[in-house]
Every structure is written in structure tokens, then in C-alpha cells.
Amino acid sequence: MVGSLGLTPESLKASGRSSENVSLLILQGKIKRDPEGYETELQLIYKQFLTSVDLFKQQGALSFSSVVGIGSDPSVAKELGDRAMFLAHVTPFYPKQLAAFPAQLTDLLRTSCLAMPSGLRNHVAQALILLMNRKSLVIEDLLALFLDIQTLGDKNLRTLAFSHIVQTIRKMSPTDPKHKSLQKIVISMLELEDEAKAKRALATLCALHKKKIWLGDRNERVAIAICEACFHTSPRIMISALRFLLDYENIDDDDDSDAESDDDEDTKKISQVVINRQAVYKANNKGTSSSKKKKQAKLQRAVKSIKRKQRSSSENTTSAFSPLNHLNDAQKFAEKLFSRLQTIKGTGERAETRLMMIKVIARTIGLHKLHLLSFYSFLQNYAMPHVKDITQILAAAVQSCHDGVPSNAVEPLFKQIVNQFVHDRSRPEAIAVGLNVVREMCLRIHDLMTEELLQDLALYKKSHEKAISAAARSLIALFREINPSLLVKKDRGRPGATVVKPKQYGEANVFSDVPNVELLQESDHESGSDDDQDDDDDTELPSGDDVEQELIPDDCGSEDEAEEDDSDIDTSIGGDEDEEMNDSDEAEIDSENEMESEDDDGEASDSSGEDSGNEEKSKGTKRKIMDFDANLLSADTSLRALKRFAEAKNDKPSFDESDGILSNEDFRKIKELQAKKEAKIALARKGFKVPDSDQLSKKRVDPAKLEAHIRHKLTKEQRLELVKAGREDRGKYQARAAIKQKKTGGSSNKQKEHRKNMPLAAIRSKAGKSKRTKKMKNSLSGSQFRGRKAWK
């Protein structure tokens, strides 16, 4: 519209509508309402922007520093930044006129960012972010640039660029194919030898992995790149990568805290279901007060163990997302890092760096169950009580042990720990730590312990130090579960307990089916048996009463008929065997039957005393014959019943014969049944359950737990904090005299008693008593006094 009227920049300037006299913010609002009406003003401002950019580049080519020229002029820099922001805002309304503007602005920041002042750099970066948000630029064009400008030393610009990269990638869809190209850009920058650029690339990868954006099997190249950063030529990059791998499991994000709260709620719900109501009722309502306390404490321990197990077995644990889990060749990674550890040992590298490398190697060995036998002999150089951070080194040694390592490779390290830490002349703290380390190593490798050594270590249970006695008792409790034959008889626990067979080297439990699926089958059988009892009585096994009813018919009324029936049964069953028996054998059997019948009659006469001896003898023989025949017939009928029962079971489709596919409901039911079973075991068990090797490999060894019950020496600041904490509820100290002086309301009764006049008799007795004591004192002192000495 402006061009059709023939308006030019000169005519606009003559009419007073030039860009110098119009505010850019006001003009920006007018352009958004009427883009066509202000096209000439836009062209004028765009030309001014290009002129400023050319001037800036010329001064940069002439090597002008930022102290002189346009860089040092705040007004010129402000005008250039304002025009850049203005053009970035109005670019969507003029796509043809400002088509080259995004590329020109990107080129300006890439080539002249060092010569720009801090405020101008921030304005240009914000303009580029605005263009990318308005779809005028794509993130692939700006990712490398934004990673480069983070190395300039400008903190505000670094924060702006870093947060924009993370938030932009976070808003992208997880299935967006752009992720691969972005990862390639960042990883290629991480592989550069430039320390500053590689550090910013590593920080970007760690942030995106920590926020679970570039996480999972699709983005495993990110985890591998973080792990490979441990071999970077720059020591700072290596230390940053090692620190991220070690501290990953201690990351606390908002999303993680929400997930943990949800998990806690779920475990509370599950624990209310699995804990038996009868146990809760007995703990609160039955027994004496002391027995109730014991039951309640046992119930609380069971609840805590169930919650801990459910929390550790949940799928949302941060250890499952560790970059070490996504290594393609974990053995090669561990060997390469161990060789670098050995090379930097004599180069004067800091001890903290070597400790981090040891912990990462141990974590990798335990997590993937690797074989790096020279690592254990390397740790022998540090297994001494006076070494700095010895507890963390011992935790790494425990972490590197698993059931796949032969005991011969770990035995020298194990013996050195025992000899250096556990002896009578060692400090109590060292003995406690040594016993705890021995317990954790034997928990992972059972063959390390010998009978003599275990019996010697078990004697520390009588120590007066709580840390030592607790560690020794925990060691005894462990071997009660894994190999009680190594313990002394009095330390093995209950005599009726089952004898546990220790596992051999390489022995493993292989699942041939879905784990714990038998619980689902048992529950189905129980529910099916309840239905069968109501519907089909033929498929049940016969009981003793049914057998007797089958053997004894209802129409037999007299004893003689019963005897005849028994004789017939005897002859029918006996057959040829009775014919082959000798007369002497028959006589012996008859005599034995008579003796047994007499014994039975004697017992019957003692109990009742009403029947005669002949009747008892006849009844005893009858009972003996009927019992023998009943046993034979019950065996026959039970075989027939078992066949009918098997046929009925074959008619029903079993789990194996069906499709064998479990639904989500079945898995949920298996989880509930497993929780109920563990609750019953936890309530009935005394001691602890030995975890699986997979659970031990995933679990991270905490060095603080190796120092359990150890009282460390407090510093002066810690002692002062304890003193101040004890004085919080106490009032300010005041002397008694000061309190009496501040007292109002008259004197007390005690003070009044001192002022009260004594009776006359009491005054006279007191005076006489004082006279007598004075006289006695004078008489005694007179006999002893011999005059003053001359030299005094």
C-alpha cells in the first residue's frame, strides 16, 4: 500500500515518520496489526542493520579491540541489538523481505562473537532463539554455534545457550528422527581435543541423560559416549566423566522424587495387604506387655524388610539407568581404564582421581560380572589401615567380587585384609571395618572362608566394643544361612534347622519357566479344589471313613456274619500263599495273634473294665483281621481313586498345555502372591535372607555401612554444635543472690524464722553452752602453749 502511493524514505523523513523518531516497540505493534502499511519503514531499518553489521565486520577485520570503536560505544551496541531484536520479532510477517536475515544474524554471531560486548552477544543470542521458536531456524543450524559460544567465558550467555538447548530437545518427541543428528553433532564435538568445547559437549550429554531425555536403548550411543569420555586426553574431561558415572545414582530430580513418592504409596498399599491381620492382632491385643512389645518390634522389622525389598526391586531405580549398563563391550572398557590407572600411578596424578577410577572399574566388574583378576592384586597395595580413604577402597574391593570370580584370585586380597585389620593390636575401628568387609566378601564368594578362620573371627562377638561385637555377630548370622557346618555347634542356631548345602563355584539357578509361576498355579488349584468339592465328589481321594464304609456293608447285623465275611475275604486274598505255609508257621502266627489280642484286651480292661476277657479276646482278633483287610482294600481303592483323579485332571487344560501366555493380570497376581509369601517368611524368620547374586551386582556398596556402629571423634565445631543444641530449652543462668535480689512480694518464711525472737530458756541454754565450749577451748590451749619462739 505504501509503494502504491509512491512513498519513499525521503518523503517519510520529511513528513516526520522516520525510524529515528518512531519507537521500535510502537512500530513493532503497528506492523503486527498492519504489515503491509509499514513495509517501507521495515526496509529502512533493515538497511540500517546491514550497515551496522558491515561496519562492525570491517572494524573486526582491521583488528580493532573491544575497548575501542563500536564495541566500546554502548549506544551503538544497544542500537544494533535493538534492531536485531526488532527484525527477529517481525520476520514471520515478512518472510520474503527478511529471508536472508536469520543466516546473516547467525553468521554475525559466529564470526564476530569475540569482538562483541556481553550485552550485544546476549541480544543476538536471544534474537536467534526467537527466530528458532518462530520456525525460521532449525536447531541443527544453531546447536554447534550455541555449544561454541558457551566457551567464551560469559556466564549469562553460557546459561542462556545451555538452558535453551536442553529445553528445546526436551520438547521434541522421543521418536523424532532429529535426535540422531543432534547426538552426532554433540558427540563429534566431545571427541575434539579442544578441552573447552569437549567439556560443554559432555555437560550437555550428561544433562540430557540425567533428565531421562536421551535415555534407553534408542539413545545408548549417548551413554557409550559418556563412558568413552573417561579416556579423553584432557584430565578434566576424564574427571568429569568419572564423577558423573559415580554420582549418577545419587541424583535427586523433581521427577525422581515424584516417582519415589508414588512408589512409597504403592508399597504402603501392598504392605497393608500382605501383612497378616492375625499377626497384627496378636501383636496389639494378645500376651503380656513385654511380649506385645516384642511382637510389635518383629512386625515392624518385617514391614521394613518388605518395603526395602519392594523398593529395591522396583523398575524405576536410578541404577537401571546408569550409563555403565549400556556398554557394548564392558570387558574392554574395564581393561582399558585399568591400564590407564596403572600408567598414571607414577605420574603424580591426584589420589582422588585414582580413587574414582578404582571405583568405576569395581562398579563395572560387579555390574557386568567381569573377569579382571589383576585388579585384585592391584588393590593389595592399598589394603592397609593407614591409607587415606581406605573405607572407599575396601567398598570398591567388595563391589568387584561376584560369584563368577574364582576364590583363588581373591584369596590373597582377602587374607591381607584379615591380617592387616583384624588382630588384637589393631584399633577397634579397623577391626570392625575388617569384619564387615569380610562378611560382604563372603556373601558374594562363599569359598573364601575356612573353618579355622571363621571360628577365630567368631570369638570377637564377646568384645566390649559394640561395633566389633555387632560385626562378628552379623558374620555368624551370615554363615548360619550359607554354610553352618563351618561354625561351632553353639553358634549354628537352632538344632532343628535345615542343613544348607553351600554352592560350588560356577553353580547357578537356571529358570526353566516364568519365575514364581508355581504360586499362580497353586492358587488356581486351590480355587479349583474348592469348586470340585461342591460339584464333583467322585474325583476326590477316599478318606479313612469312606474306606471303612465300603468294607463294612450296612446289611451286616450280627458279629457272626461279619466274621464269616472276614473269613471269606481272607481266603479270597490269601489264596495259594496260605496253602504253601507250614503248620508250624500257622501255629506261630496264631500264638502271636493271641498274644497281641491279650495285650489289646489288657489295655481295654484298664480303660473300661466292663467287658469280660473272652469277649475282649474275640473282639481283638476281629479288629486285627479287619484292620489288615482294610489296609489291603484301601490300597486297592486308593489306586482306583487315583486313576479317576488323574483322568479328571487330564480332562482340564493345564497351564503347560494351554497357550502358556500370561496376561498383565496374571503377572500382577504373581507379584501379590510373592509379596504374601515373603511376608510370611519375614514374620517367621529370625535373621536375614541371603540375596541373589543379581541383586548383589545391581546394589551399590555404601562405604558408610562398613563403618556401622563406629563412633568417630568429633571436631571442635561439632562439639560446640552439640553444646548449643543442649542449651536451647534451658533458660539463662542466674546466681541465687541475683534471684533473691530481684524477688518481690516480701521475705520468705525461712527468712522470717531467722528474725524471730528465741524463748528465754533457749537463750540461756545457748549462752551456757557457748561458755562451756569457750572454757574447754581455753583449758586445752593453755596446756599446749609454751610461749613464743625467739626467732619469730
TrEMBL record:
Record's compositionally biased regions (Basic and acidic residues): 614-625
Biased composition (Basic residues): 766-777
Protein family per UniProt: Belongs to the SDA1 family.
Protein name stated in the entry: Protein SDA1
Function: Required for 60S pre-ribosomal subunits export to the cytoplasm.
Annotated spans, Disordered: 304-323, 522-625, 725-792
InterPro entries documented for this protein: ARM-type_fold (IPR016024), Sda1 (IPR027312), SDA1_C (IPR048292), SDA1_N (IPR012977)
